Amino acid sequence: MTNELTPKFNPTEVEAGRYEKWLEADVFKPSGNPDAEPYSIVIPPPNVTGKLHLGHAWDTTLQDIIIRQKRMQGFDTLWLPGMDHAGIATQAKVAARLAEDGILPQDLGREKFLDKVWEWKDEYATTIKEQWGKMGISVDYSRERFTLDEGLSQAVRKVFVQLYNKGWIYRGEKLINWDPKAMTALSDIEVIHKEIDGAFYHITYQIEGSDEFVEIATTRPETFLGDTAVIVNEKDERYKHLVGKNVILPIINRVIPILTDDHADMEKGTGVVKITPAHDPNDFEVAMCHDLPMINMMNNDGTINENGGKYEGLDRFEARKQIVADLKELGQLVDIKPVRHEVGHSERTGVVVEPRLSTQWFVKMDELAKNAIANQATEDAVEFYPPRFNDTFMQWMENVHDWVISRQLWWGHQIPAWYNEAGEMYVGEEAPEGEGWTQDADVLDTWFSSALWPFSTMGWPDENSADFKRYFPTSTLVTGYDIIFFWVSRMIFQSLEFTGKSPFHNVLIHGLIRDEEGRKMSKSLGNGIDPMDVIEKYGADALRWFLSNGSAPGQDVRFSYDKMDAAWNFINKIWNVSRYILMNAEDVSADAVSSALTKVANKTSGNVTDRWILTRLNDTARRVTEQMDKFEFGVAGHILYNFIWDEFANWYLELTKEVMFGEDEAEKDITRAVLLHVLDQVLRLLHPIMPFFTEEIFEKLPNTSGSIVVAEYPKVRPEFNDDKASEGVAMLIELITAVRNIRAEVNTPLSKAVPMLIKSEHADFLNAVSPYISRFTNPSELTIAKDLAVPEQAMSAVITGAELYLPLAGLINIEEEIARLEKELAKWQKELDLVNKKLGNERFVANAKAEVVQKEKDKLADYQEKFDTVKARIAELKEN
Question: Where is the Methionyl/Valyl/Leucyl/Isoleucyl-tRNA synthetase anticodon-binding domain (predicted)?
């Protein structure tokens, strides 16, 4: 058969070549339908430093789910791919590769080194795209962008110049975070604070012209080489007599003044504070107030410079050791007290960051931040999911500092500023005319260009660009909470400044992927998981299912191979269900399905189970769509899982066997059509999450054509809703389950026929479905009536709308049966208490939707009926 599926799901076979077929068919490009509502996403660009990690796999999976569903719903969808040049990280990687051959970047010079970086970019960009293909992401490669593309570079230059002309970009000497390994400045948010073991070194400084000393404490004794003052609080009686005098720095014997400043806390330490303006942010502020000199005592690579006297040339930490030893020998090291404290580390290289005075380029953030804050109170506000991350964004914007944007690198957007020998500076989008101009050697922070990503990728600064006019602002951004400061916030304030609009309508925030023990994945722990290894073993669909169902928005998720096994088992279950359906309905045409569904909807053909499953399908499609619209992919996945595994596979398929093994061919045709339709709709609902195997099965359905990628997403079809069928089959399922449970309790296998009595107001319905009851419960004698005599010795169960009795004389112990029923009574009492508590809550009743309140009232009536019936049965057994 052409539509036959292999006996066992094999992800490698199913996914091989599938992505290339999609690309060849151009199914990922926008529809171009001018009447369709546009929906756009720009991919959070991975940097070109290596392979994708699980966090990026999570980003792309969630975005692909969104865009695939919107595409199927008829939106004119654009998912624009691209990559980030990642200045510090990429330059470090290339430098490390060259070092393996004994080559330094300086040996090559800027231009030849950049040639090597472009070779690296081409190599790893190809790798990333191959991995995207394995993930199945449905991007439009005809619009692929890179942050160093000429178009994006033009946008960067324009933004820089405009901000400079407004006075919002400036060049100045300030204290910044310095990475001694990468030898570049860092912004505040590129510094990760880690708790490490350190010490407070208590050192004495001699008062000039006396034998008196003052004691200071520092965690960085090497910085005393750059001290330019000590301060005390003017209210501190201990030191009033010293104010205006000088102290002598030990070893280097430089004289510095004793000043008063509120920064000195009388209650903290000795109350005397050393001021090192060029290497501490608080000291820098004090120095600005007192017009103190600022002495930089460190080279770019973290070694001591010429201001360090005999320590010149030593690494900062080696200098610390020698300084401590020398102070001890002089008798000016009073004490060393261990301390556990937070120290800033470079987010890129991992080394301890050095606060350091440096001339850099900065962005003034006050007005940009003010605009972003104000925008969140307008109709153009960015919606965060979950909403609590709006507070995270607002808090950062309210406390943001000026942004240092220059980096001492070669790889990146070179700052559009030029200098001449006359000391003049020119800032412009293009180089100045004439000779004698030299461009600033620094490049811009990678996040400067990434901040323009949503609109620069759409053709801005050409505001007449077709894509910019059609797809900007973008619809949804998906990213982790760890880069709200790095990227999300910067995109918002830059977009507002240069386009007058928010860059996107929604921001979906996910958490971090941790290992099974809850630890963050890292190289040092060796607990990282390569998504490509997972795909090789389980397939991309299984990984995507795990990533989409792992947690709620904003929450971290723990990677687990047990969960991967469960995902694979779920896919295999659907595969087997599909195989069964295809084997039994291989020749059913699309017209036949349509005709059969019309008959079922009109109740002219088909049985109650057909009407039930179509009703449940409607409910599933509605609820899944609602949850997807709220980005609650985990909830949507849970709904799909329950419908597919429990209702469709475990119940409907089994119930259809009563028809499929029967003699009524017309009824078989109806059931085959319903089976195919439900499978078709299930595949469409699943496709955004698991695209590969759903396409594989979809193309084998006898009544479909084309790719599922552009197939219509399921909609609720009101004509299929049948509440009576839904309630009736729910009662049938509950009855069958109750019988199975009773048989299990008294160790009576299904193969042994036993008598069964059912008392119900719905006796007519239950008699109509008695063939199903007989097939799945195997009664030796089945009695169904609205009223009947209850046998004394019988196991019983109360279900919604019916009482079930199995006379099992000789197999039942009355006392044990009473005990069992009393447990059941307690269960119903607990349910009643919960519902009564909810309905007794005035706020719930007043604020909840009417249908929600009514649902709780219906539960109350159902539980009360079951409670009363069980209670009465217990009384009967006790009387007898």
Answer: 610-754
Q: Please give the pLDDT value at position 843.
A: 83
Return the bridge partners of 47, or none: 84
Longest dimension (CA), the chain: 116
For β-strands 802-806 and 82-83, DSSP reports them as: unpaired
Calpha distance 558→707 (Å, rounded): 34
CA dist 522 and 528 (Å) reads 6
Q: Is 523 annotated as a binding residue?
A: yes
CATH code of 195's domain: 3.90.740.10
Which residues contact residue 296 at a Cβ distance below 8 angstroms, ignoring those fewer than 6 apart? 226, 278, 279, 305, 307, 356, 357, 358
Tokens 């084998």 appear where? Answer: 700
- Contact at 8 Å (CB) between 715 and 600? no
Report the pLDDT value the prediction gives residue 140, as an integer from 0 to 100.
96
C-alpha span between 177 and 151 (Å, rounded): 31
Closest CA to 342 of 483, 198, 520: 198
Alpha carbons 737 and 755: distance in angstroms, whole number: 16
Residue 69 inside a domain? The answer is yes
**Within a domain: 272:** yes
Strands (DSSP E) along 690-788, which ranges? 754-760, 779-785
Domain of residue 834: give its range. Answer: 815-879
Q: Name the β-bridge partners of 199.
A: 338
Q: Is 601 in contact with 719 (CB distance < 8 Å)?
A: yes
Buried b (16+ CB within 10 A) or exposed e, 416-431: bbbeeeeeeeebeeee
Give 105's strand partners.
none
Specify the amino acid at residue 83: M
CA 356 – CA 278 distance, rounded (Å): 5
196 with 345, same domain: the answer is yes
pLDDT at 811: 61
pLDDT score for 13: 93
Angstrom CA distances, 720 to 367, 606, 619, 678, 726, stand at: 57, 12, 10, 12, 11
**Residue pair 727/608 in contact by the 8 Å Cβ criterion:** no
User: CB–CB of 668/659 below 8 Å?
Assistant: yes
CB atoms within 10 A of CB 517: 8
* Number of domains comprising the chain: 5
Same-domain status, 584 and 668? yes
User: CB of 82 within 8 A of CB of 41?
Assistant: no
Q: What is the mean pLDDT of each run of 10 residues along the chain (880 residues)?
A: 76 94 95 94 79 86 96 97 90 91 92 95 92 95 94 96 97 91 85 89 94 93 94 93 94 94 89 93 90 92 93 95 95 93 87 91 95 95 94 91 93 96 94 94 94 96 95 94 85 97 94 84 76 94 93 85 94 96 90 92 88 97 96 95 96 93 90 96 98 96 91 96 94 93 83 92 94 94 91 82 82 74 86 87 82 84 82 74
What pLDDT score was predicted for residue 349? 86
Give the residue among 336, 335, 355, 330 at the shortest CA–CA distance from 252: 330
- 416: tokens are 């559009």
- Secondary structure of 46-73 as H, E, C letters: CECCCCCCHHHHHHHHHHHHHHHHHHHC
Burial bucket for residue 710 (CB in 10 Å: 0-12, 13-18, 19+) = middle
Instruction: Give the model's pLDDT for residue 1.
Output: 38
Strand partners, 179: 184
Point out the domain boundary residue: 797, 812, 827.
812
Let me know: does 693 contact 575? Beta carbons within 8 Å: yes
Encoding tokens for residue 684?
């469409």
Q: What does the alpha-carbon distance between residue 185 and residue 101 come to, in Å, rounded to a whole number? A: 28
What is the per-residue burial (b if ≥16 Cβ within 10 Å, else e) of 119-146?
Answer: ebbeebbeebeebbbbbbbbbbeebbbb
Angle between helices 691-698 and 665-686 (to 10 degrees): 150
